[in-house]
Every structure is written in structure tokens, then in C-alpha cells.
């Protein structure tokens, strides 16, 4: 829970920062705006644990899924760096592999809370699986998960 005047910064993290995490960033930002909570957030961003796609736009299927739900997407892939651990309050990742990578990379004394974004899913669907090698339905499934997780996270913060 956060105080009303305290601004939160959150980064969503997956492997390559082109499917799940930019979707989570876009959906979360959209939900925050829908609840008129922009003033409660210092930063909302996303990154990957690997640098495979640095500088690339989100996967066309991920972006199309967001747009189909009226959610705008604008992001350029980046890799998590040590500075993110001090500039973000939360690093919320999509699966256990991301979680292990983030925990292993976390500098001593870091303020960032590192955890699964799925921990906030009221349905208990904790892992947001990588849809990259699958069909469109995987992106739609991810979309529904990140909506639930976004609302769950806002509730956890005491904002909903």
C-alpha cells in the first residue's frame, strides 16, 4: 500500500521485451489512465533480461492484440540494467526464469521489489507464458492475464 502523495515506478520484464512486457506496460498504463491514476506513478516502463531485440518495436501480434482492445502501444525494446534497480520501485516479471535472472543481477542494497507480475492475478495464474512461438490465442490469453494482474497490482497498492 502506498501513501496518496507517494509516486510509484514500475517496470515490467520478460525475456526479449517484445511480447509480454511491452503488452503489460501498455495495458497497465491504459488501466492507470482509465482510473485517473497517472499522478500516482513516476514511471511505467518495460525491459527484457536479454538484449536480443534492443531497439525493436513490440511483436506485431502483441501490438495487434492490444490495439484490438483499444490499448495503444509505443515502446522500443531495451535490456534491464543495474540502474533500473534504483530507479524503479517494482520490477515485475513474467515467469520464473525472468525472476531468477533479475534476482541474480540485483545489486546489493537495491530498493526494487522483484517479483512475478502473476502474483497479482486474482485467478492465481502466476506465470505469463511466452506466446512468441505459438498462435494468436496465446497473445489473447496473455492480454487477459495482464489485465487481471494490473488490477490486482493496483489493488495491492491501495489504489483501487
Automatic annotation (TrEMBL):
Pfam family, one: LMWPc
Domain of life where this protein originates: Eukaryota
Location in the cell: Cytoplasm
Phosphotyrosine protein phosphatase I domain ranges (all copies): 8-156
InterPro entries, per the entry: LMW_PTPase (IPR050438), Ptyr_pPase (IPR023485), Ptyr_pPase_sf (IPR036196), Tyr_Pase_low_mol_wt_mml (IPR002115), Tyr_phospatase_low_mol_wt (IPR017867)
Keywords of this entry: Cytoplasm, Hydrolase, Protein phosphatase
Main location group: cytoplasm
Gene Ontology CC entries for this record: cytoplasm
Swiss-Prot/TrEMBL catalytic activity: O-phospho-L-tyrosyl-[protein] + H2O = L-tyrosyl-[protein] + phosphate
GO MF: acid phosphatase activity; non-membrane spanning protein tyrosine phosphatase activity
Residues at the active site: 14 (nucleophile), 20, 130 (proton donor)
Similarity annotation: Belongs to the low molecular weight phosphotyrosine protein phosphatase family.
The name this protein goes by in its record: Phosphotyrosine protein phosphatase I domain-containing protein
Species assigned in the record: Rhizophlyctis rosea
Amino acid at each position: 500500500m502506498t501513501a496518496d502523495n507517494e509516486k510509484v515506478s514500475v517496470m515490467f520484464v520478460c525475456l526479449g521485451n517484445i511480447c509480454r512486457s511491452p503488452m503489460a506496460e501498455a495495458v497497465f498504463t491504459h488501466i492507470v489512465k482509465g482510473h485517473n491514476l497517472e499522478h500516482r506513478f513516476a514511471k511505467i516502463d518495460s525491459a527484457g533480461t536479454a538484449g536480443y531485440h534492443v531497439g525493436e518495436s513490440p511483436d506485431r501480434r502483441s501490438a495487434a492484440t492490444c490495439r484490438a482492445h483499444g490499448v495503444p502501444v509505443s515502446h522500443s525494446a531495451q535490456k534491464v540494467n543495474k540502474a533500473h534497480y534504483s530507479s524503479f520501485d517494482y520490477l515485475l516479471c513474467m515467469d520464473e526464469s525472468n525472476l531468477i535472472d533479475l534476482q541474480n543481477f540485483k545489486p546489493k542494497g537495491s530498493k526494487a521489489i522483484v517479483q512475478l507480475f502473476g502474483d497479482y492475478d486474482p485467478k492465481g495464474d502466476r506465470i505469463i507464458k511466452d506466446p512468441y512461438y505459438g498462435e494468436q490465442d496465446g497473445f489473447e490469453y496473455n492480454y487477459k492475464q495482464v489485465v487481471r494482474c494490473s488490477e490486482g497490482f493496483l489493488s495491492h497498492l491501495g489504489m483501487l
